[in-house]
Write a structure and sequence with these properties.
The complex is a heterotrimer of chains A (about 425), B (about 150) and C (about 130). With about 425 residues, chain A is an alpha/beta fold. Chain A folds into 2 domains: about 45-110 and about 280-414, Rossmann fold (3-Layer(aba) Sandwich), CATH 3.40.50; about 110-275, Dimethylsulfoxide Reductase, domain 2. Chain A has helices at about 35-40, 60-70, 85-100, 110-120, 130-135, 145-150, 150-155, 170, 185-190, 200-210, 225-235, 245-250, 255-270, 285-295, 315-320, 335, 340-345, 360-365, 405-414, and strands spanning about 20-25, 25-30, 50, 55, 75-80, 100-105, 135-140, 175-180, 195, 240-245, 270-275, 300-305, 305-310, 325-330, 350-355, 365-370, 380-385, 390. In chain A, helix 10 (about 200-210) packs across helix 11. The longest helix of chain A has 14 residues, at about 60-70. In chain B, the strands form 2 sheets. A two-stranded antiparallel sheet of chain B has the order 1-4. By secondary structure, chain C is of the alpha/beta class. Chain C has one domain: Barwin-like endoglucanases. Chain C has a 6-stranded mixed β-sheet with strand order 2-4-3-6-1-5. Classes of the chains: A alpha/beta (about 425), B alpha+beta (about 150), C alpha/beta (about 130). At the A-C interface, helix 1, helix 6, helix 12, helix 15 and helix 16 of A face strand 1 and helix 2 of C.
């Protein structure tokens, strides 16, 4: 019997082997997905809501009002899109062009720089299938996939048998965690957990490079050189190594230069790849779609046909400097996820929130449009954390419009 | 949860040896390891004074029953469905090498010890588990791969 | 000002490292305004020695304060084997974000995982509500 599998859009792993039992468009049972995936797929919601100033309106009114805000703004901010399909993201890019908007997404303060480096071929990377089939040394650096991407280790990186890894994880794979605390992932790594102090990543990289080059590894926080030498020896022996880089690593670095240096040395001594631990299911898709269009992965400002790019067009800096005068926020809750010292400025400008759930941002928005849950109630395509394209169909039907449908209508009305 | 001692309390305690074991305690241990079934004790099965105990024990050892009665406990409140145990479990790998053994959805559910349902691991088909049956061994596959100590054998 | 109340409740300086927690994520998806999400977000995991110094018990509330905000959260012992006095852990959430600096050096990247604050016992004060 051919099984009917769905894709889970709960995180950047986009697990494509989920079975679901549903009745009358309500999902009753979910098989194989993790707890977060199940919560995501069962995410029940109320009636369709189109709110203007927190009062119910019809769809046409909400769309018209939204378009009018965007039209009247000199420099609207379009932000979010990490949990939207490629199709929606491409529409948002067009809308940003049409409204001379500043366009940014959450990768701006997450893993954007890493994805950019990968798209510019500055780092060697691989797919999660490669990892499953070949990887013998796996490093989780500043990343805790057990909590952020729960099936990462079981579906791809550590436990499964792969075409060239038939004997099982105990014999053929070494998983290493480098982190500031003993996370759930670090626990699984056992003796291969290397705890470093907060902010100690650059020094640890330098020490590791020294050890790889046969020099004595030194750190100001006196990490036992013997342990770093042991680690270097494991890495040197890797036939197919992979570093899963998380926010813990990225936030600790001034820029990516230490990562480039480490990857260069690792690839002189062994064979190493890097995969970013992208959180939202299509954050990488946004980076790729914008890159294809403009050559930049995020932080752009469209102005009469030209594209400007730089940190001043990031969501954080443009809110801080109050250079944007309206905001269209799609599938994101910046009032929760940004520092309040920055996000409070959103309260001073008209905000349009397009989101499948009520959030702090939607509650304070001038216009709120409650849309279908992308990947559960609406289909499309997306890019997995490793760059693999994944298409998916909706699991259940809904009365809620997709964010794609809404953006199309706003676009026509602008 | 049940252990051999609790089972023993429900048995006739006559050490009649009709089950082939030397004592009722030995029978209880064999029940625990699934080597024997409740029907293998004729007095328990046939004599009316043991009916209540018999039904209770049968209930505990129903083939489809959850694992707790056989010693494998899933702490559902701790488990978050990462599936590490599902993929690392040796019988799971042997019985479904290209499904769960390769990290994917199960393709041979009827012979899998562990699967994930609604985000929580579920134990079944314990006859396949390496800790039960005649050739049992102390396998730790599901325990050492769990990040939250959600699986325990008692 | 009543300085006595300050002296009575010891204050310590800490660095807060934020992290992600799967049960907290799950609770957020189910209801980001619900109790479970608050209970799993508005918590601070401290070293036992810091706990002692603050003169608080497990589950007591503490005040976290810096120039960007003030929040009340529940204190817990971290359970980590390696001592980490002066460093505390907290799930990344709207609560932790109330303390994150707007100082980015123009990079567009706030220091979400590197928060400096002071902790004192909240003397029974309730956990901060999620609102603006």
């Amino acid at each position: 019997m051919e099984k009917n599998y769905y894709v889970c859009t709960g995180c950047g792993l986009l697990c494509d082997d989920i079975e679901v039992e549903s009745e009358k468009n309500i999902i009753n049972k979910v098989y194989t997905a993790c707890r977060v995936g199940v919560a995501h797929m069962k995410n029940a919601k109320g009636e369709t809501n189109f709110l203007v100033d927190n009062k119910p309106v019809d769809e046409a009114t909400a769309v018209r009002e939204a378009a009018s805000i965007l039209k009247n703004a000199k420099n609207p901010l379009i932000f979010g899109l990490g949990t939207s399909t490629d199709e929606t993201q491409k529409l948002a890019i067009e809308l940003a062009k049409k409204t001379n908007a500043t366009l940014d997404d959450t990768s701006s303060f997450c893993l954007g720089p890493l994805v950019e480096a990968l798209l510019q071929d500055k780092l060697k990377t691989c797919t999660l299938e490669d990892v499953r089939n070949k990887a013998d040394v796996i490093i989780f650096w500043g990343a805790d996939p057990s909590d952020s991407h729960p099936r990462h280790l079981s579906k791809h990186s550590y436990f499964p048998r792969g075409s060239e890894k038939q004997k099982g994880w105990e014999e053929e794979r070494t998983a290493i965690a480098i982190d500031v605390r003993k996370s759930h992932t670090a626990k699984i790594c056992g003796n291969y957990f290397f705890q470093i102090p907060p902010g100690g990543d650059t020094e640890f990289i330098d020490a590791l490079i020294a050890a790889l080059s046969g020099k004595l590894p030194k750190t100001s926080y006196k990490y036992p050189p013997k342990k770093i030498l042991e680690l270097a020896n494991i890495l040197k022996g890797a036939k197919f190594g992979v570093i899963f880089a998380g926010l813990g690593l990225i936030y600790s670095l001034e820029d990516l230069e230490p990562v480039f240096r480490l990857m260069k040395v690792l690839n002189e001594k062994a064979n190493f790849h890097l995969v970013p631990m992208v959180g939202h299911y299509n954050m990488r898709g946004f980076n790729e779609n914008l890159f294809a269009e403009t050559g930049y992965v995020n932080r752009v400002k469209f102005e009469d046909g030209i594209v400007k790019h730089g940190p001043e067009y990031s969501v954080v800096e443009s809110l801080k400097a109050k250079t944007v005068d309206a905001a269209l926020i799609i599938g994101s809750d910046p009032l929760s996820s940004l520092p309040r010292s920055v996000s409070k400025n959103l309260l001073e400008i008209p905000v349009i929130s397009i989101d499948p759930c009520e959030t702090l941002t939607s509650k304070h928005a001038k216009i709120y449009i409650n849309t279908a849950v992308s990947g559960v109630e609406a289909g499309g395509s997306a890019t997995r954390m490793d760059g693999t394209k994944v298409s998916f169909k909706p699991v259940v039907e809904t009365v809620h419009p997709s964010d794609e449908a809404i953006l199309k209508k706003i676009m026509e009305a602008v | 949860m049940t252990n051999a001692m609790e089972l023993y309390q429900m048995l006739p305690k006559t050490n009649c040896k009709k089950c082939g074991k030397t004592s009722c305690m030995a029978f209880a241990v064999s029940l625990m390891s699934r080597e024997l079934t409740p029907e293998d004790c004729p007095p328990l099965k046939e004599e009316s004074k043991y009916r209540e105990s018999y039904e209770k024990i049968c209930e505990l050892f129903k083939p489809s029953e959850g694992a707790t009665e056989t010693g494998l406990i899933v702490h559902e409140d701790l488990c978050f469905g990462c599936g590490n145990c599902v993929v690392a479990c040796p019988p799971n790998v042997a019985n479904d090498p290209y499904g769960v053994g390769s990290g994917k959805a199960p393709t041979n559910v009827n012979r899998l010890v562990l699967t994930v349902e609604d985000g929580v691991v579920k134990a079944q088909n314990l006859g396949e588990c390496r800790r039960f049956g005649k050739n049992k061994i102390l396998c730790y596959g599901c325990i050492v791969t769990c990040p939250v100590e959600a699986i325990e054998f008692v | 000002m009543d300085f006595g109340s300050f002296l009575a409740a010891p204050e310590i300086k800490i660095k807060i490292v934020t992290y992600r927690d799967i049960f907290q994520d799950k609770a957020m998806i189910e209801n980001r305004f619900g109790e479970e999400y608050r209970d799993r977000s508005a918590i601070l995991k401290l070293d036992p020695a810091d706990f002692k110094q603050l003169n608080i018990k497990k589950g007591d509330t503490v005040i976290l304060k810096n120039s960007f905000g003030k929040i009340v959260v529940k204190a817990e012992e971290s359970g980590y084997e390696i001592p980490h006095r002066g460093i505390a852990y907290m799930p990344n959430s709207p609560w932790s974000n109330m303390l994150v600096s707007d100082e980015t050096g123009g990079t567009g990247v706030p220091k979400f995982k590197d928060i400096s604050a002071t902790v004192t016992s909240a003397k029974g004060e309730k956990v901060t509500e999620l609102r603006f």
